[in-house]
Write a structure and sequence with these properties.
This protein is α+β, with helices and mostly antiparallel strands and 253 residues long. It has one domain: Alpha-Beta Plaits. 32% of the residues lie in helices and 33% in strands. It is built from 7 helices and 9 strands; from the N terminus they run ββαββααββαββααβα. A hairpin with a 5-residue loop joins β7 and β8.
Length: 253
């Protein structure tokens, strides 16, 4: 059985109940051989995930440099997002399915967050991947935004991103943040974890680069497809940069 390093929402409440759980796993690869393997798996791993009948939805993603919010790829960091029918299946698969063991073995460090969708709007690859069947439980909240950027506005979009990256990078409230994507330049995913809804909403509504970029997107119809989702942070496993980002923040949990 998986040993969770940090349980934030009592997972026993979901035992025996079919309620969707999303996992997002981040992997850091330090050696040249490991980075080449990870890059190759962006193609080859699809064969493994496509054969897992328990997976409702999955995506393999690379990351950007710095905070991840740049179009320049970071060849050291990759992520895997999976949507499972319930928490038990998520646990069993991450522990027993060979492809996850290979990622863990090849990576120098990895961190997995277990998430319960509380709200979702929009589509991803023509589908609605998450079921908002969790009730917000308080405590840390995760936000995920994903967009397919129209080729005609690529330069405008990426011109705005550095200013947004600077703002979120210096925000003292955000616990974890990263920019990832399926295809460089054209597909952008932002994932962040906040201590509560108040701090996340304050950042989103602040009259700065982020708010201005959102307004520009709405006015100019920059995206071909977009999705916005929020989640309860149920549990974490592993470490990132040598520690669990939620461990210090919620040591009293």
């Amino acid at each position: 059985m998986i040993c969770f390093d940090r349980v934030l929402t009592p997972l026993y409440a979901f035992k025996g109940i079919d309620i969707q759980v999303v996992t997002i796993s981040f992997y850091r690869f330090d050696t040249r051989l490991a980075r080449l393997w990870a890059f190759a798996m962006m193609g080859f791993a699809r064969l493994h995930f496509a054969r897992l009948p328990s997976l409702h939805f999955w995506k393999l993603c690379g990351s950007g440099t710095g905070e991840g919010f740049t179009p320049r790829p970071n060849t050291s960091v990759y992520s895997v997002l999976c949507v499972w029918p319930d928490q038990a299946m998520a646990e069993q698969s991450l522990e027993n399915v060979g492809i996850f063991a290979r990622y863990q073995r090849m990576s120098a460090e990895n961190w997995t967050i277990f998430l319960g969708p509380t709200s979702v709007r929009g589509r991803w690859s023509g589908r609605t991947p998450f079921e908002a069947d969790h009730t917000f439980s308080g405590g840390p909240i995760a936000a995920l935004t994903r967009a397919t950027i129209k080729p005609s506005i690529l330069m405008k979009f990426w011109d705005r991103v550095p200013a947004i990256s600077d703002v979120i990078g210096t925000n003292e409230d955000v616990i974890f943040k990263i920019g990832i994507g399926e295809v460089p330049f054209f597909h952008q995913i932002t994932f962040s974890i906040w201590p509560d809804t108040k701090s996340m909403t304050a950042f989103a509504r602040h009259d700065g680069p982020h708010a201005k970029a959102i307004q520009a997107v709405r006015d100019g119809l920059w995206f071909k497809e977009e999705l916005y989702a929020r989640f309860n942070v149920l549990a974490t496993r592993g470490s990132w940069n040598g520690y669990d980002p939620l461990l210090t923040e919620y040591s009293h949990a």
